[in-house]
């Protein structure tokens, strides 16, 4: 594929990523207008937000497997067409039930679409530096959409009508369909085009749906309530059933041996830790900006834009640094900067202004940009014939990390806030005490991620790694190691001096251990927390 066509492919993937990420947060600011026009209860408003996230998160693995089975381009077009049509239906909704149905259909379309985006990047950008930059662009676009969601929702609902937060997806979706149809080549998955693992599809969907529901409803309904406790139990049972099924079927949806790779498993865990810290802060910083500093929703949304732009600016720097000092040090440095930014923001009080926020937000943005090689490193060793389902796993991890960030940091915040209120603090002082403690906890989690990346992305493993070979047609399983004795390509994250050094074939008596890829998914932003703001 020539350079121009690859550029158009990245443009299509970027536009699709932008609209699906934007829909995670764009609705939140418009909820009062929606409630007023459609006469919805609080429970109805919650389902307007949650319907999209529940369906989207629960079907990500299904979307990834279908992409491997039927082709990445085909699923990209089908998912985008469904998402665009559902956006039109949501904008035309004349009742709460119709709007919730439209949001659920948006979630189905996004679940089919999003896993193909990273898979298309992985198969289109074969050169490692190009793939690094493409992944960086993908992550930066998702972060920018996350930041612009509340801003766009506030502007459209304040100066237009809330329906435009859905209608705006239609022209963007149609344009992206045209570009994608012309630019994206169809993938040929080979062995992955075997029969579908229906038990695996069913158990993964049930498990992710139950876990997502529990994380959304936990604080509001209580973690010991029958609905939440039952959902957590169902998620655990479905997860166990999924692992049992995948270890026994001939052609599993997810080859469980993939999780024996320390780069895939450790890298995904580090990504979750980043999301726990950063995505949770997106949510609670919004409460701080509006509830304590008195920012309007539009101004609060604007405050996050520099963070997202600096994240995009830091991505090319990350690629160059990874080539010089290694992905492990580059990503770990990014995690440390993010933690420093969170600690800086935690020191701000009631009298802070927009300028006071910028140093901390800048550290978080640049640091997040430096973590981009983590995603690219994992992508570089994924089996090409299972790129769709592997992308689904990574995107599901991003979604869960955002929800866990709101849940974990929220639990810390509310516990500390309650204690402060019991000691006679004002509501504002109590919230600030909880908010500060939550940010410090988030910084600690991110620092754990820094240590983890240093261990799983060490120089030796990065330099000697290999991209797993495709599944053999008659086996139905993904081979996670290259045939013994074949030369290996340098990995994307290897330092330049190592990448240019010829490597000896692996000894016949040793099987090389594979090493295999945050986004955003945003927290649902419904609120569910007792903030005790003035």
If helices are DSSP runs of H or I spanning 4 or more residues, what is the number of helices?
20
CATH topology of the largest domain: Growth Hormone, Chain: A
CATH first level of the largest domain: which class? Answer: Mainly Alpha
Structural class by secondary-structure content: mainly alpha
Let me know the CATH homologous superfamily of the largest domain: MFS general substrate transporter like domains
Report a brief summary of the structure.
The chain is an all-alpha fold. It contains 20 helices and no strands.
Description of the structure:
With 534 residues, the protein is mainly alpha-helical. The protein folds into two domains: 3-197 and 249-460, Up-down Bundle (Growth Hormone, Chain: A), CATH 1.20.1250; 198-248. It is 72% helix and 0% strand. It contains 20 helices and no strands. The protein is globular and about 60 Å long. It starts with a helix and ends in a 35-residue tail after the last helix.
Features:
534 residues, mainly alpha, Growth Hormone, Chain: A, 2 domains, 20 helices, disordered C terminus
Topology of helices and strands:
Elements: H1 3-22, H2 31-38, H3 42-58, H4 60-70, H5 72-92, H6 96-124, H7 128-159, H8 164-167, H9 169-183, H10 198-221, H11 226-246, H12 262-292, H13 297-325, H14 327-346, H15 354-370, H16 372-379, H17 387-422, H18 427-456, H19 459-464, H20 496-499
């Amino acid at each position: 594929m020539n350079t121009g066509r690859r550029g158009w492919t990245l443009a299509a993937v970027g536009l699709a990523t932008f609209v699906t990420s934007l829909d995670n947060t764009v609705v939140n600011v418009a909820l009062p207008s929606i409630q007023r026009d459609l006469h919805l209860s609080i429970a109805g408003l919650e389902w307007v937000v949650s319907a999209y996230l529940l369906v989207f998160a629960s079907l990500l693995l299904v979307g990834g497997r279908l992409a491997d089975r039927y082709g990445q381009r085909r699923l990209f077009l089908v998912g985008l067409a469904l998402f665009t049509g559902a956006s039109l239906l949501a904008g035309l909704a004349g009742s709460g039930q119709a709007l919730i149905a439209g949001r659920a259909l948006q979630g189905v379309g996004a679940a089919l679409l999003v896993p193909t985006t990273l898979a298309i990047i992985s198969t289109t950008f074969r050169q490692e530096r190009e793939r690094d930059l493409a992944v960086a662009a993908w992550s930066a676009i998702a972060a920018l959409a996350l930041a612009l969601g509340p801003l766009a929702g506030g502007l459209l609902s304040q100066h237009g009508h809330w329906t435009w937060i859905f209608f705006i997806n239609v022209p963007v979706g149609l344009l992206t369909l045209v570009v994608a149809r012309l630019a994206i080549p169809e993938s040929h998955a080979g062995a992955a085009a075997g029969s579908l693992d229906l038990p695996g599809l069913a158990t993964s969907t049930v498990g992710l749906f139950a876990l997502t529901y529990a994380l959304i409803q936990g604080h509001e309904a209580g973690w010991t309530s029958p609905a939440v406790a039952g959902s957590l139990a169902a998620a655990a049972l479905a997860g166990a059933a999924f692992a049992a099924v995948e270890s026994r079927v001939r052609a599993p949806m997810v080859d469980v041996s993939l999780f024996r790779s320390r780069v895939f498993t450790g890298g995904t865990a580090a990504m979750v830790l980043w999301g726990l810290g950063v995505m949770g802060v997106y949510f609670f910083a919004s409460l701080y900006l509006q509830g304590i500093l008195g920012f309007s929703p539009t101004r609060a949304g604007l405050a996050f834009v520099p963070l997202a732009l600096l994240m995009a600016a830091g991505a090319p720097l990350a690629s160059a640094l990874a080539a010089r000092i290694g992905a492990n040090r580059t990503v770990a440095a990014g995690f440390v900067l993010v933690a420093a930014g969170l600690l800086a923001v935690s020191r701000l009080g009631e009298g802070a202004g927009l300028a006071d926020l910028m140093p901390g937000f800048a550290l978080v943005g640049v640091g997040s940009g430096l973590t981009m090689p983590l995603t690219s490193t994992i992508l570089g060793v994924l089996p090409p014939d299972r790129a769709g389902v592997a992308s689904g796993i990574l995107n599901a991890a991003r979604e869960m990390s955002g929800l866990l960030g709101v849940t974990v940091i929220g639990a810390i915040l509310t516990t500390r806030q309650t204690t402060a209120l019991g000691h006679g603090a004002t509501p504002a002082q109590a919230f600030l005490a909880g908010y500060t403690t939550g940010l410090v906890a988030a910084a600690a989690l991110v620092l754990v991620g820094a240590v983890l990346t240093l261990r799983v992305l060490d120089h030796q493993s990065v330099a000697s790694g290999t991209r797993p070979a495709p599944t053999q047609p008659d086996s139905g399983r993904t081979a996670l190691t290259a045939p013994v004795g074949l030369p290996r390509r340098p990995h994307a994250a290897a330092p330049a001096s190592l990448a240019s050094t010829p490597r000896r074939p692996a000894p016949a008596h040793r099987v090389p251990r594979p090493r295999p890829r945050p986004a955003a998914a945003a927290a649902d932003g419904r609120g569910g927390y007792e903030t005790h703001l003035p």
